[in-house]
Design a protein that fits this description.
The chain is 36% helix and 20% strand. The protein is α+β, with helices and mostly antiparallel strands. Among the domains are: 20-223, Histidine kinase-like ATPase, C-terminal domain (Heat Shock Protein 90), CATH 3.30.565.10; 230-396, Ribosomal Protein S5, domain 2 (2-Layer Sandwich). Strands 1, 2, 3, 4, 5, 6, 7, 8 and 9 form a nine-stranded mixed β-sheet that branches. Strands 10-11-14-12-13 form a five-stranded mixed β-sheet, sandwiched between helices. Helix 4 packs antiparallel against helix 6 (120-126). The longest helix is centred in the middle third of the chain and has 28 residues, at 371-398. The relative contact order is 0.08. The model is unreliable at 1-16, 103-107 and 400-409 (pLDDT under 50).
């Protein structure tokens, strides 16, 4: 080790040329190499076409999932420039082979854009097995081709060859994701359609045509939403009892354009989505902070003005005011700053100021002329405040002071370390598996909490029943950070005692149901655990194969596909052991397969689309049976059956 350190010199510095860095570290550019990152390739290309729309040159976008697994995105914008660049090659090739090259840095070609970093097109190119670019200009189609990010055709004098005649202008990009990069290369249609539909709500004059040609199907949809974000809110609340009309307002402050739509429903729920330059910011950001702060201030001022709040009363909290609110906050910013290339959180301080100012001006103007709507909003806040105060008393009675260790009857077998960054807790189904896990674990940093069977379905339960549930109380006390609900906040992520919360259930239908119930609990009452990447699902193996030939070692197989591959490649007989439950493994096997950080497999729980996640949770875990039955029938062919 010492000799290696001593040889640290200029030769130790590796320079990655061109797009090689993207292929080495794809997660830095698209978030992950899972289905989430795969779909992100489409979004990057579509976002560039939408930027043409924002610039006033594109009205139609076509997105096609081709039969061969590739994707084609075509627009009727101006077409990527094809003339000679200062680098001595067509500008199109510069765009697709150079990071941070594009027309979005000087605010001349694009006043606002979602493709801020100038890496979108080149990153998609780098992560594709092959890509073809066709540009229509001046009645001619020009073409360029790439393979794994590198040009796949020679250019005559650096310019693109003409391959045909064309009407109009525009750009068509076809790309096939590289299987060397991605875990799976099949785009997830539902997520893609949701994102495209979302884009049309944010751009009322835009039309997007979607087509899926895979598997012999011909799934076509056209997205066009002339009502804009008001239609978005209407769609989000279509199954809810509303208490106000949809309120919309817009304005501009210091170069930042702001558009807001909101509506209140009867349920205890807050759903506010933020967008900057058409990009959904799943982790929010300064624009949402500005809206929430200003709106809370406005409602408190009105509440005191009309006597709903007396001098002795405390102000409504922000959560009180937003109880029952569904809102879309969309801004157009000339120079947005995001946290990361995937643009999950907006970071511009001036965005908060702009949204707050427009909200103060326009919401006040609206409420001055619509007193009944104002009263309905204040009534929602009053109801939330009453319940918040009564639940605070219930929490005191129902939740004991959190302890760091429980006795054997209190379920938790805690770890010795107090360093939350290093600690992890396994929520294990059943006493049998829990006992094995306690013996198998590393006591220094791994805690075990067994649960008996299926916990309460919080989607169908009242708050008093949720707080009275022994299993839920034990988890809340163990995690140490409290919990939150739709009408109040009592959650502090900084107090979380475990960096990883790992659901460890059997690999069968009952185990999947238990995991789903736990995820519903976390999503509805501790969503920050998921959004900040603390929740995982353990992936125990389904099989262990033991070769009959002496000298060959046994092997764990995690799914039926792995077993099928093993049968094809293994020569000779073998014994197959099927694990129907975690309790069937001895402590050593459980450590080797599921607890050992060096060998185990964990699946990180992520939420890509907050709106879809909320809708799907309500659909699958709520009380309304007919829509759930319809969903199950429609997706029965997607089920993975345990045979």
């Amino acid at each position: 080790m010492a000799s290696q350190a001593a040889n640290y010199n200029a030769s130790s510095i590796k320079v990655l040329e061109g797009l090689e860095a993207v292929r080495v570290r794809p997660g830095m550019y698209i978030g992950s190499t899972s289905t989430r990152g795969l779909n992100h390739l489409i979004y990057e290309v579509v976002d560039n076409a939408v930027d043409e729309h924002l610039a006033g040159y594109c009205k139609n976008i076509r997105v096609t999932l081709e039969a061969d697994g590739s994707c084609t995105v075509e627009d009727d914008g101006r077409g990527i420039p094809i003339d000679m660049h200062a680098k001595g090659v067509s500008a199109e090739r510069v765009v697709f082979t150079t990071l941070h090259a594009g027309g979005k840095f000087d605010n001349k070609a694009y006043a606002t854009s979602g493709g801020l970093h100038g890496v979108g097109s080149s990153v998609v190119n780098a992560l594709s097995l092959h890509m073809t670019v066709d540009v229509k200009k001046d009645g001619t189609i020009y073409e360029d081709r790439y393979r794994q990010g590198k040009p796949d055709m020679k250019l005559e004098k650096g310019l693109l060859p003409a391959v045909g005649k064309a009407k109009g202008t525009g750009t068509k990009i076809n790309f096939l994701p590289d299987p060397e990069i991605f875990e799976k290369t099949r785009f997830k249609a539902d997520d893609v359609k949701s994102r495209l539909h979302e884009t049309c709500y944010l751009n009322p004059a835009l039309t997007i045509y979607y087509e899926d040609k895979r598997d012999g199907q011909d799934d076509k949809e056209t997205f066009h939403e002339p009502e804009g974000i008001a239609g978005f809110v209407k769609e989000m609340n279509k199954t809810d009892e509303t208490v106000t009309p949809i309120v919309t307002f817009s304005g501009e402050y210091e170069g930042v354009k702001v558009e807001v739509a909101f509506q209140y429903i009867r349920d205890f729920r807050e759903e506010i989505m933020g967008f900057c330059n058409n990009i959904y910011n799943s982790e929010g950001g300064t624009h949402l902070t500005g809206f929430k702060t200003a709106f809370t201030q406005i409602i408190n001022q009105y509440a005191r003005g009309i006597g709903a709040l007396k001098d002795k009363d405390q102000n409504f909290t922000g959560a009180d005011v937003r109880n029952g609110m569904t809102a879309i906050v969309s801004i157009k910013h000339p120079d947005p700053r995001f946290e990361g290339q995937t643009k999950t959180k907006l970071d511009n301080p001036d965005a908060a100021k702009a949204v707050a100012q427009v909200t103060m001006d326009e919401a006040t103007h609206y409420f001055d002329r619509n007193l009944e709507v104002l009263k309905a909003v204040i009534e929602c806040a009053e109801r939330a405040a009453r319940i918040r105060k009564s639940e605070a008393k219930a929490k005191t009675n129902l939740l004991t002071k959190p302890k760091f260790s429980f006795d054997s009857n209190g379920k938790l077998s805690n770890c010795e370390s107090r360093d939350a960054e290093k600690c992890e807790i396994f929520i294990v189904e059943g006493d049998s598996a829990g006992g094995s896990a306690k013996m198998a674990r590393n006591r220094m940093f791994q805690a075990i909490m067994p649960i008996r069977g299926k916990i309460l379905n919080v989607e169908k339960a009242s708050m008093d029943k949720v707080l009275a549930n022994a299993e839920i109380k034990s988890m809340i006390n163990a995690f140490g950070c409290g919990f939150s609900e739709g009408y109040g906040q009592d959650f502090d992520i900084s107090k979380l005692r475990y960096n990883k919360i790992i659901i460890m259930a059997d690999a069968d239908v009952d185990g999947a149901h238990i995991a789903t119930l736990l995820l519903t609990l976390f999503y509805r009452f501790m969503p920050e655990l998921i959004y900040e990447g603390h929740v995982f699902v353990a992936m125990p193996p389904l099989y262990k194969v033991i070769p009959q030939k002496k000298g060959e070692e046994g092997e764990y197989l995690y799914d039926d596909a792995a077993l099928s591959r093993y049968r094809k490649t293994h020569k000779g007989g073998f014994t197959l052991q099927r694990y129907k439950g975690l309790g069937e493994m001895d402590p050593q096997q459980l450590w080797e397969t599921t607890l050992d950080p060096e060998r185990r497999r964990l699946r990180l729980v992520q939420i890509d689309d907050g709106r879809m996640a909320s809708e799907m949770t309500g659909l699958l875990m709520g009380t309304d049976v007919p829509p759930r039955r319809e969903f199950i029938h429609a997706h029965a062919q997607d089920a993975e059956l345990d045979v």
